[in-house]
Amino acid sequence: MVKEWQFTVSDTPYTVRYCRGLFESNGEVRVNDELIPRDKRYERFMLGLDRPLSLGDKEYRLVACGNRVDIAVDGTFVDSRKPYLPLLRTPGWVWIFVILCAAIPVLALGGGIPVVLGMLGSLYCLRTAVSPHVTPWLKPLICFGITLAAWGLFGLLIFLMQQI
């Protein structure tokens, strides 16, 4: 995934480029083709990135969460035109759903499909919990739905395997 923005600050042109590989959680940031060193303080493991960028005398925020990448200036995202909200810290309650999803491959004693179901369920629960775009009271309900869907697909897999 490659995303690029053009800005002019105090008559100086800037090109901000974000590049991330398919299996990377956080990619590299370049400003005018100069690599900006990674700073772990702004990275959320497997969830995203919310880092400040100083371009001239202005501060921008590069936010990457899942497949969405946008840059905010003056409190508004450039591409989506939505107000900037910081990527939140992981709340403690989400770990219940992560553990429930991660239990799928444990209960199945491995296997490719159960591992994928458990990993995707856990990842989407984590991303939902830290997303600033989801209403806080709705987050546990969505995580419950994700966990229920993962277990439902696992149950369907078991049912189909018994029919063979």
List its salient traits.
164 residues; alpha+beta; Lipocalin; 5-stranded antiparallel β-sheet; 3 helices; elongated
Secondary structure: elements and pairs:
Layout: E1 2-9, E2 12-19, E3 28-31, E4 34-36, E5 43-44, E6 48-55, E7 58-65, E8 68-73, E9 76-77, H1 94-107, H2 112-130, H3 139-163
Antiparallel strand pairs: 1-2, 2-3, 3-4, 5-6, 6-7, 7-8, 8-9
Helix pairs in contact: 1-2, 1-3, 2-3
Put the structure in a nutshell.
Helix 1 (94-107) packs antiparallel against helix 2 (112-130), helix 1 (94-107) runs parallel beside helix 3 and helix 2 packs antiparallel against helix 3.
Description of the structure:
With 164 residues, this protein is an alpha+beta fold. The protein folds into 2 domains: 2-77, Beta Barrel (Lipocalin); 94-163. Helix content is 35%, strand content 30%. It has 3 helices and 9 strands, in the order βββββββββααα. It has helices at residues 94-107, 112-130, 139-163, and strands at residues 2-9, 12-19, 28-31, 34-36, 43-44, 48-55, 58-65, 68-73, 76-77. It has a 5-stranded antiparallel sheet, with no helix packed on it. Strands 1-2-3-4 form a 4-stranded antiparallel sheet, with no helix packed on it. α1 packs parallel to α3 (139-163). It is elongated, with a radius of gyration of 19 Å.
